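Contributing new complexes? Match this layout with NAP.
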Amino acid sequence: MADPSDLFSVRGKVACVTGASSGLGRRAATVLAQAGAQVIGIARGAEALTDWQAEAGGDTSAVAFDVSDRDALGDLAQEVSKPFGSPDIVIHAAGINTRQTADDVTPEGWDITLGLNLSAPFFLSQHLVPGMKAKGWGRIVNFASLQTTRAFPGGIAYGASKAGIAQLTRAMAEAWSSHGITANAVGPGFFRTKLTAAVFNDPERAAANAAQTCIGRNGEPEDLDGPLLFLCSDASAFVTGQVLMVDGGFTAK
Ligand SMILES: NC(=O)c1ccc[n+]([C@@H]2O[C@H](COP(=O)([O-])OP(=O)(O)OC[C@H]3O[C@@H](n4cnc5c(N)ncnc54)[C@H](OP(=O)(O)O)[C@@H]3O)[C@@H](O)[C@H]2O)c1
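Output block (do not edit by hand):
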């Protein structure tokens, strides 16, 4: 039984985070590093990853990689295991929303969305799970969304990918949790990032979203810190296959 004062600790764990250069993935990678994990940040842009490393401090490494390149994810798994050994924790935060309407969505827009938001978390996890199985401990954290259960205009491909994430999370739990590997997802409400610039550039829309929450505001990056540390630590050892909505109660009403 873990010491209660240590329950939420990630100290000494190796974590890799996709989408670590921006927004919520960056916040996740930073909070894990500041909580004492060794963190490998992944995104396509090398410069922004260097910025993230400077901001996070701690023990970090960076790999510039396109995680939508499904056939190369085995190579990525090897690459992220070089600096600190095989990851104990993987956070899949890289994501895209093309905002194409149902009438206008293109095959390319559909494929890029499903490829990055849904296929990459599965196939990268598949390559990292053997290392977690060998340790008998692992944490997989996917990124769900309000659109996991709600339909928003211009969100047909994104919503399909994020609804898929909920079932992927349950299926990962079914497949791997008997090996000490939990799989859960966080479901953020509205947070101001590059991804949601279109929403936050419209003050009325941002205010309407804030009003829809029970708490009365949109999310701030640090609202994710506690939920992420919970899902990445021993505190959540008996929690798996779940979507933890971090949305100020948006989906509660
Ligand atoms: N912001 C919100 O309100 C909100 C709400 C619900 C769910 N989410 C989810 O939270 C996650 C993070 O979103 P965000 O708002 O933080 O977005 P963001 O600020 O746009 O950041 C996206 C990150 O993903 C990386 N990325 C994009 N395409 C990539 C690729 N092909 N390969 C590797 N990395 C890639 C980007 O870096 P590069 O461009 O350099 O690759 C960047 O680091 C997403 O899954 C999103 O769906 C966000």
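Reviewers usually confirm one structural detail per submission. For this one: The CA atoms of residues 57 and 169 lie 31 Å apart.
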